[in-house]
Amino acid sequence: MNPDPDYSAAYVVLHTDEGMEGHGFCFTIGRGNEVCVAAIEAYAPLVEGTDLDLGDLGGFARRLLHDSQLRWLGPEKGAVHMAAAAIINAAFDLAGKIAGKPVWRLLAEMTPEQIVDLADWRYLTDALTPDRALDLLREAVPGRAARTADLLERGYPAYTTTPGWLGYTDDKLGRLAREAVADGFTQIKLKVGADLDDDVRRLRLAREAVGPDVRIAVDANQRWDVAPAIEWMEALKPFDPYWIEEPTSPDDVLGHAAIRRGVSPVKVATGEHIANRVIVKQMLQAEALDVLQIDACRVAGVTENVAILLLAAAFGVPVCPHAGGVGLCEAVQHLSMFDYVAVSGSTENRVIEYVDHLHEHFEDPVRMSRGHYSAPAAPGMSTQMKAASLAAYAHPHGEVWRS
């Protein structure tokens, strides 16, 4: 589905009168990036020259998202929603820097009442009420200190997609899969869906390379209708795939539910293209997925992802974020770490995707150790790119484009 990506991002910097900066972005794969830039510029009059109450970041997000004229462009989906994510994440990056804390810790040290106030509860209360969310968060409070200590010592579990891109030779697939296991990863992921015979061969090679105890997830990136998804996965079952990711349209709640019934015991995972918390709610209500994959920049940033994490915890569904792209690993690690400390209280069957590229452009890049994300210590959300990278790659005047 994504055969020619040109990794891009629409980038935002919030400046304060005191000289502080908050950095955020939304990830795209090339053409259309300018649409997100235009949407960000459309939000600018709601942000520039205003006071930002760091104690009411939920209110800041709701003010953007509830603007009646910009809301018409969604509502709460597409380029306008991704633009809001860039701005809202920049606000949290700014808040973390002012507080001197990484955003995962900033969130995890909030009171349950403050966390609940971050979320926009409109359209959610038939599935989860603020009072029930408060109960969940209060139940997690006594274990926060111990889980923070564990996170700082051990990090957060990861899986890697590095071995699994379509187009790799069989030798390269096997070599990268073995290297992933040697690096401490207990799960890898392969892209599938282009050619069934190729997928059968590649999955057989991957299973031979990693052995029976390492999980292999597969990702179709929305390639199939419902019946072909079930048939394709039946052919791959002999190699024990752990989950099938994005088997069909991200909007098709009932289709995912049918696929889940049809491919069991293989799990169904989706989320990186789910437009908003309302579709997530329906996926959970319909028992349409086994694994929820949040994206730091697809929905409206930190605040909407907080709502989604609360929904997932209420339904007992593990969250395994989508990452890779431009800076998605850097951003989403904060959400999973907050979830572990203050929401779900668990890393069981939870992993963050890891892809080993483009981290060198960030001031505070992810750090991996033994197949785990090390907890960020620097203030902010790890979303600030290096000034040299911004200058060189800015479109259309950066050196890379001029050359």
TrEMBL record:
<dbReference type="Pfam" id="PF13378">
    <property type="entry name" value="MR_MLE_C"/>
</dbReference>
<keyword id="KW-0479">Metal-binding</keyword>
<dbReference type="GO" id="GO:0000287">
    <property type="term" value="F:magnesium ion binding"/>
</dbReference>
<dbReference type="Pfam" id="PF02746">
    <property type="entry name" value="MR_MLE_N"/>
</dbReference>
<protein>
    <recommendedName>
        <fullName>L-fuconate dehydratase</fullName>
        <ecNumber>4.2.1.68</ecNumber>
    </recommendedName>
</protein>
<keyword id="KW-0460">Magnesium</keyword>
<dbReference type="GO" id="GO:0016052">
    <property type="term" value="P:carbohydrate catabolic process"/>
</dbReference>
<dbReference type="InterPro" id="IPR013341">
    <property type="entry name" value="Mandelate_racemase_N_dom"/>
</dbReference>
<dbReference type="InterPro" id="IPR029065">
    <property type="entry name" value="Enolase_C-like"/>
</dbReference>
<dbReference type="InterPro" id="IPR029017">
    <property type="entry name" value="Enolase-like_N"/>
</dbReference>
<dbReference type="InterPro" id="IPR036849">
    <property type="entry name" value="Enolase-like_C_sf"/>
</dbReference>
<dbReference type="InterPro" id="IPR013342">
    <property type="entry name" value="Mandelate_racemase_C"/>
</dbReference>
<dbReference type="InterPro" id="IPR034610">
    <property type="entry name" value="L-fuconate_dehydratase"/>
</dbReference>
<dbReference type="GO" id="GO:0009063">
    <property type="term" value="P:amino acid catabolic process"/>
</dbReference>
<keyword id="KW-0456">Lyase</keyword>
<dbReference type="GO" id="GO:0050023">
    <property type="term" value="F:L-fuconate dehydratase activity"/>
</dbReference>
<feature type="domain" description="Mandelate racemase/muconate lactonizing enzyme C-terminal">
    <location>
        <begin position="170"/>
        <end position="266"/>
    </location>
</feature>
<dbReference type="InterPro" id="IPR046945">
    <property type="entry name" value="RHMD-like"/>
</dbReference>
<dbReference type="InterPro" id="IPR018110">
    <property type="entry name" value="Mandel_Rmase/mucon_lact_enz_CS"/>
</dbReference>
